[in-house]
Write a structure and sequence with these properties.
The structure is a homodimer. Chain A has helices at 10-19, 25-50, 56-67, 75-82, 86-98, 120-141, 146-162; strands at 72-73, 102-106, 114-118. Chain A is built from seven helices and three strands. In chain A, α4 (75-82) crosses α5 (86-98). Chain A has a three-stranded antiparallel sheet with strand order 1-3-2. By secondary structure, chain A is mostly helical. In chain A, 64% of the residues lie in helices and 7% in strands. Chain A binds a DNA duplex through α3 and α5.
Chain lengths: 169, 169
DNA sequence: TTGACATAGTTAGCTAGCTAACTATAATGT
DNA sequence: ACATTATAGTTAGCTAGCTAACTATGTCAA
């Protein structure tokens, strides 16, 4: 996602609005600021995870596996739940398996299928990462009280509903 | 950025909170939802831009150039303003130059420097993209009234201030 | 004036996304 | 029973990020 270091000032936006009368300045500002804060958050999260040798994609796979009672899933299930292409999941699993955090177990009944299981090392990794992640996240959100959290989720829900505007037609 | 198709249910979060007592469930929900909506927005924006043969990185470079009175800048300035590494900018400019949307002009005075200029084709491209982008963005944000926009920006500002928690130490 | 440092840009090689095409296997319908 | 279709996973090649290292050029101080 774009970093947007340099958000447009009101003057710049006005200048653009002159050429492009469709521009809704307050909508643009709000939208870009939302993208910007989220991108920065994502980068900060990555920085936190990378101290443990993980990035978001690989970390999320471990979490998805830990959610399962059997600590086991399949590449296609994982790719759906993580919202990435199956091919991307292959790459993530290659890396995780290389580091010994998951293992591939070949299904003898359906030879197309592979089970992916969290290893003890993978669980140890989560036990190191999650407390760190949770306590930093808690600190990050400390300034936002319950009411504001609810409001934020509500407004994001509205944006979420309107999102189709970008892709329709 | 992670797609997070499958956000944790309250049950999953409680299960995790048992193992990791640092977990602040409402903070986690809000945080993940913010990341998720922003990621989806970013992907939707890309889908809109890709109909014009652009993606966020390349599109933002064109916008930065159009902001300049001379429609001209340098790779390092652009990389700072776009928040990407200089090396990344080299790649973006390669693509834009290949498509004829910008040109590299070598500075005769300081032979280390290169000027990047928006071409007529680049301006035409913006004139096609921006009205489409602005009107879709306006539709997307239509459900969020002025008050909610202000609130959203305010809350994001607080999150932004707390973000250092992820990177400190 | 020349040696050290600073700046501008590029290259190389990594991660992590994507789509499209491929292999292997299973399921299904005629 | 066999051809077709569907499913699971991987591979290959693309974009767009990154860091580190490199080249070339300028600047400045001893």
């Amino acid at each position: 996602m774009l970093q947007l270091r340099d958000l447009p000032s009101t003057e710049v936006l006005s200048k653009f609005a002159q050429r492009y009368p469709q521009a809704d300045i307050s909508a643009i500002s709000t939208f870009l600021y939302l993208l910007r804060v989220a991108t920065d958050l994502s980068a900060s999260l990555d920085e936190c995870l990378s101290r443990h040798g993980l990035l978001q994609g690989r970390w999320w796979v471990l979490i998805l596996l830990m959610r399962e009672d059997t600590q086991t899933s399949t590449p296609s299930e994982l790719s759906e739940k993580a919202g990435v292409a199956r091919a991307t999941m292959t790459g993530l699993l290659d890396g995780l398996a290389r580091d010994g955090l998951v293992t591939r177990i070949f299904d003898p009944n359906d030879r197309r299928r592979v089970s992916i299981q969290l290893t003890a090392m993978g669980q140890d990794k989560l036990d190191a990462v999650m407390p760190d992640y949770y306590s930093r996240l808690s600190d990050c959100m400390a300034g936002v009280d319950e009411a504001a959290r609810t409001q934020l989720q509500q407004i994001l829900g509205i944006v979420n509903k309107g999102m189709g505007a970008f892709t329709k037609d």
